[in-house]
């Protein structure tokens, strides 16, 4: 239909920069008009590539749009490339490494993205040892550098704790993530450093974590608030836990913003609609998704240096 050679068509469909833009536009226009799609099975046999990137998500990562925000950012990064994004669910009672092993051993994707990085994450170890392209949302402590996108949770907890001290809190607390996750250490380090510098007391919530049901977090806060040594300030690592904490403080007779104070990370516009009296620090999961996609594309292309992004929190307090 174009009178061009097969190799030229192939390069035009892959948006090869060495071809004239006019040629690329003409070929892509005709391909769109006739509904042409490459045979992915044939492509895999010929090149060894699947043109697939797999994002592994747990069902609870859809809460407050975490997964949706990541997908939005990743697809923006993949736009104008030959890659397709496939979501691989990580079901409950399945070890996190199992879908990774299945993808790698069956060459079902050219790269993988996953979250909830642990301190010594066996998924990261497996992917490094198999030289398989990946990027994690969160960091590990393996000695080898690896691709990651993360939020500086230590800086966040430090700044949030200092803010609570400025508001007059005498004791602060935090509901932590699972102890195996790397960012748990970062949150603890930031809170401890700020509390010691400002001379206030601090504690880590016992018996509950970010994975606990919201009712359990709420009830814990109610019980702690009714004791003489209960915290009057909370640093929250997620919007969901913040709503549970605010509910518990309110049920215990405290007024958030007056007799108790809360600082939380905010990643959705929905949280602001509740007007709960908490102060917030933005964590942009769409931007994280864009960075995850861009870094993985570079890793698939063979790059091995500077494949890490650490987003810094921005504190914009009301006063």
UniProtKB/TrEMBL annotation:
SMART domains: HTH_LACI (SM00354)
Keyword Transcription regulation found: yes
Pfam families: LacI, Peripla_BP_3
InterPro entries for this protein: HTH_LacI (IPR000843), LacI/GalR-like_sensor (IPR046335), Lambda_DNA-bd_dom_sf (IPR010982), Peripla_BP_I (IPR028082)
Keywords: DNA-binding, Transcription, Transcription regulation
Domain HTH lacI-type: start-end pairs: 1-47
Superkingdom per UniProt: Bacteria
Keyword set includes Transcription regulation: yes
Gene3D superfamilies membership: 3.40.50.2300, lambda repressor-like DNA-binding domains (1.10.260.40)
Name listed for the protein in its UniProt record: LacI family transcriptional regulator
């Amino acid at each position: 239909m174009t009178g061009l050679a097969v190799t030229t068509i192939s390069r035009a469909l892959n948006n090869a920069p060495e071809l004239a833009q006019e040629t690329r536009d003409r070929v892509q226009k005709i391909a769109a008009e006739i509904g042409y799609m490459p045979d992915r099975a044939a492509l895999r046999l010929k090149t060894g590539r699947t043109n697939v990137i797999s994002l592994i998500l747990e069902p609870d990562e859809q809460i407050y749009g975490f997964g949706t925000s990541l997908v939005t950012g990743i697809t923006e990064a993949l736009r104008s490339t030959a890659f397709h994004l496939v979501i691989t669910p990580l079901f409950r009672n399945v070890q996190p490494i199992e879908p990774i092993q299945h993808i790698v051993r069956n060459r079902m994707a050219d790269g993988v993205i996953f979250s909830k990085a642990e301190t010594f994450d066996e998924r990261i170890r497996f992917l490094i040892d198999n030289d398989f392209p990946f990027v994690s949302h969160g960091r590990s402590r393996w000695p080898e550098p690896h691709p990651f996108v993360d939020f500086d949770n230590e800086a966040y907890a430090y700044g949030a704790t200092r803010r609570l001290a400025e508001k007059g809190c005498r004791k602060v607390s935090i509901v932590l993530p699972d102890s195996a996750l790397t960012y748990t250490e970062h949150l603890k380090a930031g809170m401890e450093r700020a509390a010691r510098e400002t001379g206030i007391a601090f504690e880590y919530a016992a018996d509950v974590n970010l994975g606990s049901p919201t009712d359990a977090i709420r009830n814990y806060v109610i019980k702690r608030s009714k004791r003489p040594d209960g915290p009057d300030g909370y640093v929250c690592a997620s919007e969901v836990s913040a709503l549970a904490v605010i509910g518990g403080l309110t049920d215990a007779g405290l007024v958030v913003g007056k007799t108790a104070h809360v600082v939380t990370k905010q990643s959705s516009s929905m949280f602001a609609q509740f007007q709960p009296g908490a102060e917030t620090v933005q964590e942009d999961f769409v931007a994280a998704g864009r960075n995850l996609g861009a870094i993985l594309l570079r890793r698939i292309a063979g790059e091995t240096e500077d494949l890490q992004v650490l987003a810094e929190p921005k504190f914009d307090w009301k006063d």
